Amino acid sequence: MSPSMKVRAEHLNRKAIVYIRQSTLAQVRFHRESTERQYALQEKAQQLGWNQEQIQVIDEDLGISGSGRSLRQGFQSLVAQVSLGQVGAIFGLEISRLARSSADLLRLLELCALFNTIVVDEDGMYDLCDFNDRLILGFKGTMSEAELHFLRARMLGGKKNKARKGELRFPLPVGFCHDTDGHTVMDPDEEVQTAVRNVFRAFETSGSAYGVVQFFSQNSLRFPKRAYGGAWAGKLIWGTLTHGRVLGILYNPVYAGAYVYGRYRDQKRVNEQGHFVHHIVRLPQEQWEVLLRDHHPGYITWEVYEHNLQVLLNNRTNLERSGPAREGAALLQGLVLCGKCGRRMSVRYTGNGGISPVYECKGRWEHGRRATCTTVPTPSIDRAIGDRLLAMIQPTQLELALQVMDKLVNKEDDADKGWTLLLERTKYEVDRAERQYQQVEPENRLVTRSLEAKWNEKLEEMARVELEYAQYRSRLSWQPTE
């Protein structure tokens, strides 16, 4: 059947839809010829007999992949109008523009055959009521989906091969950068290095990620973040250290001098609407695809890194093991295990106002029983443990006190170093602004006023930092003499 015979009056009485799609925003921006060719399909629809008022352009899916993993509003609108019998023809540059997923494409083709809608691409015209045309479009759709698989497999294979040699470059965490030869080195900014080292020192002292956040908050220390992409690409932005960032640093093996590829996996599931939902999960170490130790200088050793992970694991409160001491009035909060079943015991506060804590086994709640497995009043066991602890440390209490004092002093020295570097950088920026102001010609008043305002801003910032540093020094604990 010739193409002119496939376009009948029943098709011309309904609208023609020109569906336009590009897979990524980069293609939309840089591959404009393809987009222009797709928009030009309106002229082809007019040549086949449709008026301009009957032609609808759907371009809502520009920059969205057609692999079936993304929610395409434009494609849904197309399917809805076809199922209502409102569409006489669908125009697309090629079948891959409609969909690269067999499930999406076959659903659309079945609706087109049911409501007598023809499909037109650059190669020809297809009547889905004709078995041969439907077979050809099915083959094209399968080849389009296979092409996507081959392209992805080829690119991913080259990427993995480069990663096995430790040469695949990706954005580095704060504290590292690439040198001119492409090697991973520590950030040359001493203030950045000090901030990263303070994270690991604070974690070593406190034993928890929240303790690191508390250390930075109490000492009014800031933490850097490097921007990627856009106008701020490569710039350092200083801000507040959060709990999530601390965990990201502690879990990242790059800080231990290791090169790792394949730490995360994209897990997909199907939601109620039948679309893929992506969820990123962190894999255990034995499932990492590439692990090259001693790849570059690190802030900690690999042994310290694994020890930190073990500490984080022990800090979890939903494990049936003795965990770290928790907050609360009880001395052994989070440390007591049930003598009957071995489960961790929680603390329940009773009495008027909840001032009488007792250790209680969690088995009562987990098994739905009203009876308590074990309940122990805290005063008796806390007193016994306290007496035992004091008896143990009496012979070495002087040495222990000196060790505690040294740890406090070192902790404050780490924080003070961060403040010193911040003051040094602020003073440098003030001196630089002053030099720029002094070097400008007096006749150039517009530039002079701008540089003077910039100099005043830097002076105000230095005054603010000095005031905050003075407030920080006033909150320090007593410093012992030799």
Model description:
- There is one protein chain.
- This protein is 48% helix and 16% strand.
- It contains 17 helices and 16 strands.
- The strands form 6 sheets. It has a 5-stranded mixed beta sheet with strand order 2-1-3-4-5, with helices on both faces. Strands 14-15-16 form a 3-stranded antiparallel beta sheet.
- A hairpin with a 5-residue loop joins strand 6 (176-178) and strand 7 (184-186).
- Helix 8 packs antiparallel against helix 9 (131-164), helix 10 (190-206) packs across helix 11 (209-218) and helix 11 packs across helix 12 (243-251).
- The relative contact order is 0.06.
Which structural traits does this protein have?
482 residues; five-stranded mixed β-sheet; three-stranded antiparallel β-sheet; 17 helices; 48% helix; 16% strand
In a few lines, what is going on in this structure?
48% of the residues lie in helices and 16% in strands. The chain contains 17 helices and 16 strands. The strands form six sheets. Strands 2-1-3-4-5 form a five-stranded mixed sheet, with helices on both faces. A three-stranded antiparallel sheet has the order 14-15-16. A two-stranded antiparallel ribbon has the order 6-7.
Instruction: Note poorly predicted spans.
Output: none
Q: On the 0-100 scale, what is the average pLDDT? A: 81
Number of strands: 16
Helix proportion of residues, in percent?
Answer: 40-55%
Tell me the fraction of residues in β-strands, as a range: 15-25%
What radius of gyration results from the CA coordinates?
34 Å
Shape: extended
Tally of contiguous helical segments = 17
Global structural class: alpha+beta
Gap between N and C termini, in Å? 102 Å
